[in-house]
Amino acid sequence: MMKRFQLGRATILDGEAPEYMWLKKMLTDRVPRTDILRSVMRCLGGNELLADAMVKVAEGGMSRGEFAALVEQYQAGITAQPQVFPKRGAELSCF
Predict the structure, then answer these.
(1) Model confidence over 35-53: pLDDT tens digits?
(2) Which of 44, 43, 37, 23 is nearest to 83 (CA)?
(3) Which residues contact 25 (CB under 8 A, 6 or more apart)?
(4) Which of 4, 2, 13 shows the shortest CA–CA distance to 54?
(5) Least packed by Cβ within 10 Å: which of 15, 22, 48, 72?
(6) DSSP conformational letter for 46
């Protein structure tokens, strides 16, 4: 069962939100993308589609408005997709 995505619209639209800074730091540190996606899903909920979209926003490849619309669709149950990552033994940090 997927966890509800925990960021609200105001945070999603805030380009200076700490969640985006967290992602940018992981990208700068060259954390593997699969680990970043897994961390986003563990810490913020959602699924692989939302996690990947959020990383794209942090990278500058998707607008925050597009991401907000995607999250709204997901929350409405329109684009629910299963998580695809197997669980690992190691815990991932959320910030």
Answers:
(1) 999 999 999 999 999 999 9
(2) 37
(3) none
(4) 13
(5) 15
(6) B
